[in-house]
Queue: 4 jobs
Job 1
Amino acid sequence: MQSQDVAQRHAPSAKGSGPVVDVEQAEAALVEHYPRLVRIAYLVLPPGLGRSRRVLTAHALVQRALPRGRTSAAVIPSQSTGRDSDPGYSFVRLQVVRTALEAGLPLKRRAWPKRSQLPPLLPQVWGLRLFPRSGGADELALDQRLAALSGPARAAYVLRGPERLADPDVRRVLAAAGAADPDAALTEANGVPAQYALLDSPEFDPCSLQARPTDLMRRRQHTKAALAAAVALAVCGVLVALPGDGWGPDGAAAPAYAKNPAAEAALDPGKLVRGAPAAWKSSSRTDFSVWPARGPLVRDSDLLRRALAVWARPGGSVHVSATPGTQTGGPAGPPRLLYAGEVDNARVVILYDGLRIARYAEPKNDDVKIAVLDLARVDGATGAEASALVVARSDDNVRYLTAPWVTKAAERDLTKPSGGAMDLDLTDGITAPLAGPALQSGHCTSWNALELTDASGTRISTDLGELVPAQLTTGRPGIGEAPSTSGAETLATWAPFACSLAAQRSTGVRSVNAWAYADQALPEATGTAEWVCTRAETWRGDGTSVLAQFHTPGGRYGAVAAKAKDVAACGPRDPHVLAGVLWKSEAGSWYLLAAGSRDTKSIHATGGITASVHGRLLAARAKKGARAELAGTLDDGAPLTALR
């Protein structure tokens, strides 16, 4: 493992070369902040490239921002907390700004164009144009104002806004990125109103994209002759290979585009499955299959027909989103109707086909011809996982449609475990709006969660930007061990680590478990630190995310000590974990601290720090910036691999 510095780092002086950044550190910063870096590149790139090429170029510039070897981070902003204290992030951000500015230079200024001025070789998408979702009138107006600025001025606006840098730090970054006159760029940026919150909207998010075809007529003209020849050869080959009356390659399947009774039934609003209002009371199941049809528009055939048709064949004016691993095709048969009604400023229909939830929304104003279709996997959802769905979002608020067995709903700030819960009114199963954390930007100061109560108890879930809220649990993972879902201990465990849930937004998370696996007395008698492992499980099975986090006494937030993807550690199949950090005491001394779960017999550190201990807690003297590899042994003699 490469131990990470949790203590405060110091920014270099303006004249110094800055701390040394190696490839691994830069890569970790790039992966952790990839969406933010791509958004910066997209905003700084010249609008004349077009939205589709800007998207691909932004991704290409960020992916090429890694250094070839160890290098100095020449410009580090003056902030000393958060991502801006990370030399790796500062270096990668500078590279992104520099290449984005180079991309806007006229080709005639150089005999040979720079790589950033040419169309990206990678990534490439054939046959499709990718571009961010359209925003509102305010986003469009801001985009037009930014398009009128020079490249350095756009960079200054972005560094002031989402990056929250002071003007002196903006000048340093622009100068290091090659801007000829940083002062002029700042002056030009002053001409655009400071609407920085709009930059966090989907209009400027090149990681949340829509796909449309390229010029179909041109493609048809270029490939018509080759396609005709290929079809002729394929038909001749099939005719030669088939015996007299044998099956064709598609067997008994209907010819393409022929009418299919099952497909037609799936689009008939009269054949929608509508659950009885009290069916859930007598059923042994607690999933979406026993939800009743609710809402004042459950008999609006025109609305239901539009929802089904859009699900099967979304048009160009439909904004479609799906959680990772979710199929976007139409239902195989008539789905179940869960809700149809007006919520805020939209007409909403929620459908369930046994594997997926589909949410269709259209404006109440019939003059606006747009629609939204959101899809999410819910296969195997039962109990708490089938207790709530997002029915509407507006103005950073979210409303939920709750299960019929939910008797009470409340809002709770996870960062304040003793702050109590605020009750939410339930109207026809829909909660009053609560401030959702999924769209909040900037520094995390709170994290609102949904608390639902039914006959079996109280459970906590959180909005991570998808249709189904993720369940929050605590406790040691293990097959046959039931995690805790509520109570004072659960709230106290999550409080310092709630903000780390931001890393799981829009990744298809099903549940997140927090396990306080060790307490460690800090050197120099400065208190006891807590080690917590959080594991996020997804609906698709793969893509699990594990974070080992370290919380010092008196600190409001925990710090990520190690992370891993798609590993068994900290989960039911492997309820063990080992991680370490580089920690600085109040007296200025540096230590390597490491902790393993309760079955850990010994821990060994090699590399920049050599130390070992018989037991599951290690504390060893270290030097600032030292790196170590950790390994452990379990009580049964099996090796224990540290999270990296």
Job 2
Amino acid sequence: MTGVGESVTDPYLWLEEVEGERALEWAKARNEVAKRRFATSERFGELEARVLAMLDTDTRIAYPGRRGPWLYNYWRDREHPKGLWRRTTFAEYAKQDPEWEILIDLDALAAAEDENWVWGSAAVLRPEQRRALISLSRGGADAKVVREFDIEAKAFISPEDGGFYLPEAKSDFAWIDDDTLYVGTDFGPGSLTDSGYPRVVKRWHRGTPLEAAEFVYEGEVTDVAVSAGYDRTPGYERHFLGRATDFFNEEVYLLEPDGTLRFIDVPSDATESWYKELLLVRLKSPWEVNGTTYPSGSLLATNFEEFLSGARDFDVLFTPDAHTALHGYGWTENHLMLVTLEDVQTKLYVLTPGPDGWTREPLADAPRMATTSVTNLDRLEGGDEFMLSTSGFTRPTTLMWGSVGGGVEVLKQEQEFFDADGVETEQFFATSDDGTQIPYFVIRHRDRKGAPGPTVMSGYGGFEVSRTPGYFGAVGMGWLERGGTYVMTNIRGGGEYGPEWHTSVLKANRHKAYEDFAAIARDLVARGITTHEQLGAVGGSNGGLLMGVMLTRYPELFGAIVCQVPLLDMKRYHLLLAGASWIAEYGDPDKPEEWEYISKYSPYQNTSADRRYPPILLTTSTRDDRVHPGHARKMAALLESEGHDVWYYENIEGGHGGAADNKQSAFQAALVYEFFAQQLMKQ
């Protein structure tokens, strides 16, 4: 038997029954097998305890979200495993041990309501900040319950008392004023897209039932989602609406008071944003305007009202080159902050509009082999202040505060959680099959440079997600301290070199991302860093699909693989949960011409009982309502039937993130590195 081809009835479809009794018993039985093999040793217990202590410690930086004078924070520790939502002032936050105002104790709430609540988000109504819309999920799912919260009273407002409440769904919502929301949710049959997201947007007034909300707009069932919002910048208040026709294309409109829509006529794959009189457009494909072609990855600026009236005069704020891409941008009150990636290393700039055009100055020096990001910009009430967050593979995060035109000072610095003495970071480039140079980082102790050693390489390569250096405490404890080498890859499909780094491997070109990862695996061996027998690979979600392809197409390159919350059955992925929203990334398997190329790599359709595969650990979550747990379940069952060395672990709670609390996160981190230690280090 070779995989589950399209002419073969899938014998494991019953494993797609998420909470089916038979499927859950199957999962629990394999959990016990994995636990007995990997989670019973003293070494496992010690690592799990160390990771949990890191996640629970109160010495971690409490990263804030700034809203004017308030800094909000969601916090979990040993005493509060589900977490606290809290706030403080900047003056208090700057202290070594700040006092926090506790707004919601999620552990107490879950106990009182007998629900396994997992924190989602908080949408605070500004400027008064007296009310918030709180999103909570059961067990970590993407679907959330939305409840209105009185910040001053520190209590939820029941629907009976006039509070807004949305039952469990993948809802989208936004405040308009104290008594009005934009809301997209499950209004009943026909109100959701094929992807399971809102197709209809309504305006909901306090004191009226949800079913009486006023219709605003509806998209097509084949869209990904529609949404609406309100920009409350004083003097420039604007209502807007977005219709995502697929994962990468969106039509954006201004919503006029009379209900008419004014289309913002930029390419649908571009990202547009506005602030006061300015419109910014970040291009993801070349755009020809009045005889000028602006390249993919550019950032353009123009007067918003003049643009709506037909003018097409742009200031070019950023143009990419072969080594440099735009990584992020955001406004202070008077300045635009830019973060660029130059060969996957960050640089920071300040751009300022003026009567004679724009000026550009460096913001601050960013250390090499690290990532520096600009955070906590508040253009409405924050002046020109900002925060910088910097971390590297062996460099714990440092949080700094500054103001444009002033200095930068350290606010907080995290402790080291593993022994990084002698551990060094290097960057190399591998040559992919088509000649493209693919960067990757190697993190290892300097004493490991003399001979090949056990190595774990990680990858993702999709959805324009850039992977940049950061402090991975669990990797350090579980792998680097044991003498292992860790590799972070920057294969195509991500955004490390701008939009084309992503678009070059969409659909029929997907194989190039897999060739990139395989090229790095070969390059690691050619450089003497490791051997194929000592080389492991790990990835999750789209990276889990990457791992499935490595197993079935390149098994000879690896000694062990960990495949987390993966897509694997690419014949049915678009029929399961949010899968339809990813057709723009992978293609539509219902179209014969697109299934032709998908079928060549889809892991579930390409297993073989006659090939030798490296040992694989598959993990997933029952409550993952984004990537269906059936992918991992079915693949594990199929590999078992073919006689391969496969291990399986399913977290019953946790959603797509894999864990609902720190204890689960620590267990799964320890499980991964104990698996690699046994397979690659033979310990």
Job 3
Amino acid sequence: MVVCGDDGLAHRLAAELRGVHGEQVTLVVPPNERMARPPVVGRARAASAALLDRVVSAAVGLGGGNGGNGTTGSGGNGGNAHRADGERVLEAFELTEAVLAEAGVERAAALALVHDDDETNIRAALTARRLNPRLRLVLRLYNRRLGQHIEELLDQAAALASGTAAADGAEASTTVLSDADTAAPALAAAAVAGTTKVVQTESLLLRAVERVPSGDGRTAAGGLCTLALLSAPGTDPAGADGPDGGREQEPVLLPDDEEVRQAGGRPAVVLEQVSSFGGPEAAAARRGMGVVPPLASLFSRRLRWSLAGLVGCVVALAVALWVVTGIHPLRAFYLTLLDLFAIDDPALGAPLGRQILQLLSGLVGLLLLPVLLAAVLEALGTFRTASALRKPPRGLGGHVVLLGLGKIGTRVLTRLRELHIPVVCVESDPEARGLATARRLRVPVVLGDVTQEGVLEAAKIHRAHALLSVTSADTTNLEAVLYARSVRPDLRVVLRLYDDDFATAVYRTLRAAHPQASTRSRSVSHLAAPAFAGAMLGRQVLGSIPVERRVLLIAAVEVAGHPELEGRSMAEAFRAGAFRALALEGRADVPGDYVLRKGDRVVVAATRRGLAELG
């Protein structure tokens, strides 16, 4: 396996392939002055993290003559290579043909191009496909429409290459993924419901929820099945020593029935619903969202109440005229409107009640004139400023404050609006890529540095439902969360943190300081790496369900050739701690006694190692 990248996703993906799936990995990164600091993958995989640390330390030491078997190309076309404990690191400024050849692309089974720049990945993919038509390619692209065309182009190029691939029976494939698209559903779900996890495929919608223990101390499981047992209340999910000096309970993924029965007092993640998802119709509705502004957005709330009050006055005057004069109700309304618009029909010689009502109708008509003028001006102003950023309206509450409108924040914003969740965005860069999306979706935006006083107040943080901080700086996210908690101690917060050790310390401290509030920390590369690794291994990872700082993968697996699945019922296709069959792809109503057979494609929940065992 060859992994090429310039940020934390490349390091995390290499550790995933090496430590979990046992693959031989060549990691191609920029030279040390441009290299991102690799993340600590997690305490549960300390060996892989230690290996990665040694690899990076060796890479940093290159260039001084101690590179071992390193080679250097001319004109920046080559790279420095080093091997440490079975993992090879190659340093190169650009992914040229010489660098890819030196990385072993011609002999590799799969290549992942996870640079942050789409153009770099596309150029390298075209070169790699020419070097090895049988190569399985995995590209990280932010532009989804361009990704579809590139995927078709590369697959067609592989099919029309030399006849070697067809003769060997190898099947080349290209998979285009986006770390932003992979992580956005989990981030949005954590902000909206705090405990809810949702995985959406093309035809299925899987919904998991955290269930707290019941009053008698037993786990309130319920649902279709139990996917995970969380840390016991008052414990630290990172596995640190507890206040009583003992080892804390860690989360358990895919427990069996006996473990669930014995887990008294521990909350659980339960699969609550598997339903069909109307893909084309829902997608069309999402595409049309925000194109035509709703009628209510043309007029302010105060103006709408004024119009309603005037309509009520007109109705009351017409009813009074009908009662006083005894004329037909329709004629009463007609005369009231004549009086309202000052059309000359004086009530000379009419009864006193009729004359008084005519004067009152004229007075209401005078009040109607400024209201109509205000309505016209507001409507014109709304259309004139349709392309401008909106400000948070007065009285807004129960919304989600989203910090950061980069590529991650933009995807999260789109996801929240698909769920019809009110959002207020905060962005410091007036040229951020997500501002156009916020303008199209008519989402209020506050421009300013979130670390400055008054910015979060302008976003109505004191009346918000949750704060979702997804900027690219860990310290900025932490500072925003701490300030928001000083304003609202019970505020639900979700922050994006890159480093696992730092995230664990922050999570533990925030939970200890605010035990009644919901706190979640998420890493985009941590959520996205399993999907990229699965694509490199030829598996379709549909999504992930975060369980504290661990991840449960949702993948589609062909039943044929898997003795753990073929010939077994849906209920029997289960191995504790490894995998569990949830549904058939495209079918939500599959009974537990349905026997899996060749040709079926089953949706499973699996741990990283469980998915590797399914092969």
Job 4
Amino acid sequence: MFRDQSKSAGRSEASAETPYLKLLARGASADAYEQPVLLARADGMAADRIAALEDAKVLALRVRAEMEGRRRREAELSALFETAHDLAGLRDLDAVLQAIVQRARSLLSTDVAYLSLNDPARGDTYMRVTEGSVAARFQQLRLGMGEGLGGLVAQTARPYVTDDYFRDDRFRHTLTIDAGVRDEGLVAILGVPLALGPHVIGVLFAADRRARVFERQEIALLGSFAALAAAAIDAANLLTETRQTLADLERANEIIGDRSGVIERASDVHDRLAELVLRGGGVHDVSAAVSQVLDGTVRFADAGAAPGDAVEVSRAEGHAVRHGDDWVAAVAAGGELLGALVLDGQPGLDPVDQRTLERAAMVTSLLLLARRSAAEAEQRVRGELLDDLLDARDRDPRLLRERAARFDADLDSVHVVLAARLDSPVADADQEAAARRRLWSAASHLAATRLGLAAARDGGTVLLLPLGPGDTATELARRTARDLGTAVHEAVTVGASAPVRDLAVRPETVAEAYAEGQRCLDALRLLGRPGDGAAAEDFGFLGLLLAGSRDIPGFVERTIGQVVTYDEKRGTDLLRTLDAYFACGMSPARTKDELHVHVNTVAQRLERVGRLLGAEWQSPARALEIQLALRLHRLSSSAPPGQH
């Protein structure tokens, strides 16, 4: 009986798979795989029969998905091979590019595909080939570097994708580009760079007229077509070299075909890491690429967060080492430990994968060193330009503007010079030097993000930052003190100059403004306000002594300007009343005799002054400033024309 039941169960399982085998055989849609279960339930079949059908359905759908994936990969590989064949067989560049764009559009199933090339002479990028486009204005677009999604790809040499172009603010929108995209009706756009070595020569796009999220494999596929398009362009310009390259690729393909899966995986790692280096990828890009190859999670850990013992062993031996269920590869350069790559939860790592992790650690160290060197070089060059402005070495406005433009700085805009200094005590000279380096590094980063300049000077740091619309020197000084203090975790005091203009034409004003900023910095320290920021305008009449320009009209305007304006508009005598009031020892009774008016008139005028100048206008400090402003206003008003 047991054997009969087993045979019956076997027939039940076999019969449960039969309808799904038929569905697989005829390539039915995914929806059709629900029918056998629904029919079984409708016929009132036994629960074990329905469960068997459910299991068979899951297995069949998995097989179907695998088959669909293989068909898709076969189609992609076939298109890539056909395109590569076109490169060898066609001599017409436009025909090759048109074929690439057509295949990209077909495989990604997009409404439109197009390709743009950079124009070095004009400094922009223009449409070269389109497929599926219907708008003439779109087909004739030219994009400046950094403009639109395509301009951003051309400028940064990195793929960019947006599922809704007009709601995406990661790139700069322009009226011309937006009008062309709107004419074409595009919504979702994917762009990948066309690169020859480190140089971007154009962009390959795939776009839809509806919202769409492009998958990672679609981005990678378009990137493969972009690489072939770049090769086609290179072939048209350098035909002889391209033939040799294609021959080398053929030989490389033959060698790769003879190797085992392990060698293919190692080659894949090498290609991915080389591509990351060429396109300027970062540490996390390396971790992500190696994670895919090793089928695990690879993460970068800073030197302080990495497993200490394992990192030291890896650093000493020069190999990845096992740490529990993880593997650790030290990321080091010379005698400096930069961090580690950690492969989580992979205790059984074969030698090839171990070397892959070690190679990734080496590439990571190179990327970190290259990024640090580039940042330090840019900081030094920014500092050299600011040093030249402070010392007025270079007085050629054209050269100064050109040097500043390399850092996106505009010397013709309004700037403020800020003197910054650390206020925390240090234990010894080495710690003081390290603290100053941190301050200089933080100031350089701040200047780079705000399109300004920074340099180390006089035991501190000097910054030249543009003044935004509606901003003041005081607000900029306080914001800079706060930002630098947060960056270096210490109190940073900042003194600011008054706004300065025309720095390319009058570079000597930078040194004058720096001296004014230093005086404000010293005043803050003397007043016991470490970690604060201020400009001369914050110190009342003392600001006249701190400001290099001795801005007397500005002081008068800030102190009694509202009273002056009130008298001028209404013909009142508030200023004369103030003069008499202070001359009479702030006595309303004596003031009314001096002015020959009723005491109530004096009281009414002083009440109006209080509303204009604020309730504290008669406090000793404010009264002193007001009296000084009245004296300066009187002297300025009596001076001959042209000497105010």
